Q: What sequence folds into this?
């Protein structure tokens, strides 16, 4: 997004798009509607191909469809006009649109907004995160897109979606996991806590399979991951703390810098100085570190 592009209420979610028209009440097609809300044929609406949410649970959609069939939609669907035809693309509310089709509704309430491609993508990502409609991997990918495509820092992202910077950093670390393990998180076989414990393990995929087959808790997974780093050997004591510099302070600095970069950081400190190591797994992550060190905009 260009620096000259005005920001329109980002971080406020759906209320920023709808103004004051959102009301948590069923929308009756025969009743008076709030300003800006109108009925539109479901056939004139299509999904956003860049929608950050990829998984829609069939059982949950059936439940929502049953509710919509009885009570109507709780909130209108936000759409934007397609400049090339008479169709409208969904900005927010794809899940409701899908459920409305299952409920065999011919029309749904919508609010039409003129939005650019960039605004549409950003609103869709922020809205899904604020609604907690994304699984952990989808949320992590969304953060990555907001950083790469819109130049947000982790701190800005935290404010945008009402999360802590450390939460954003921890979510981004999930993308360091192998694709197979990310899929296990996405489909619910592994929790966020399990995934975080496996990030620094030598073979996260093999350990993930053990965690699932043995139904291990997060604490048990943490022990399993630590034991896999040096089989048959006792963990070596930390030697990076110089006299007068507690190891706990070094570890706190590692976490702080790691949260800023979204990567694993290790500090080896001695009485004559030391080194800072940043672990990365992709060229995109390396590029991000280089841009931060050079002061270039991200």
A:
């Amino acid at each position: 997004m260009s620096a000259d592009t005005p920001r329109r209420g980002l971080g406020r979610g759906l209320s920023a798009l709808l103004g004051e028209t959102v009301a948590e009440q069923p929308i009756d097609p025969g009743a008076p509607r709030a300003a800006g809300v109108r009925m539109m044929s479901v056939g004139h609406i299509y999904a956003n191909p860049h929608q950050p949410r990829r998984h829609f649970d069939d059982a949950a959609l059936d439940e929502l469809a049953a509710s919509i069939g009885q009570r109507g939609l709780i909130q209108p669907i936000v759409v934007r006009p397609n400049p090339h035809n008479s169709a409208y693309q969904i900005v927010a509310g794809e899940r409701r649109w899908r459920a409305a089709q299952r409920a065999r509704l011919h029309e749904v309430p919508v609010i039409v907004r003129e939005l650019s491609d960039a605004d549409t993508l950003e609103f869709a990502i922020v809205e899904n995160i604020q609604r907690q409609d994304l699984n952990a991997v989808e949320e992590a990918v969304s953060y990555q897109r907001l950083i790469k495509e819109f130049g947000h820092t982790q701190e800005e992202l935290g404010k945008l979606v009402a999360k802590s910077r450390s939460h954003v950093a921890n979510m981004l670390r999930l993308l360091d996991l192998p694709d197979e393990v990310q899929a296990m998180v996405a489909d619910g076989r592994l929790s966020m806590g399990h995934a975080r414990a496996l990030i620094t393990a030598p073979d996260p995929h093999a350990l993930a399979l053990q965690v699932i087959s043995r139904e291990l808790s997060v604490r048990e997974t943490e022990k399993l991951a630590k034991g896999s780093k040096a089989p048959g050997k006792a963990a070596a004591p930390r030697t990076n703390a110089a006299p007068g510099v507690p190891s706990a302070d070094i570890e706190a600095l590692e976490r702080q810098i790691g949260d800023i970069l979204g990567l694993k950081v290790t500090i080896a400190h001695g009485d004559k100085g030391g080194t800072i190591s940043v672990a990365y797994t992709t060229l995109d992550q390396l590029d991000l570190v280089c841009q931060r060190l050079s002061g270039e905009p991200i």
Notes: Strands lie at 37-41, 45-46, 77-81, 88-92, 107-112, 264-270, 273-279. The CA atoms of residues 177 and 258 lie 16 Å apart. The chain is about 45% helix and 10% strand. Residues 1-35, 231-245 have pLDDT under 50 and may be disordered.
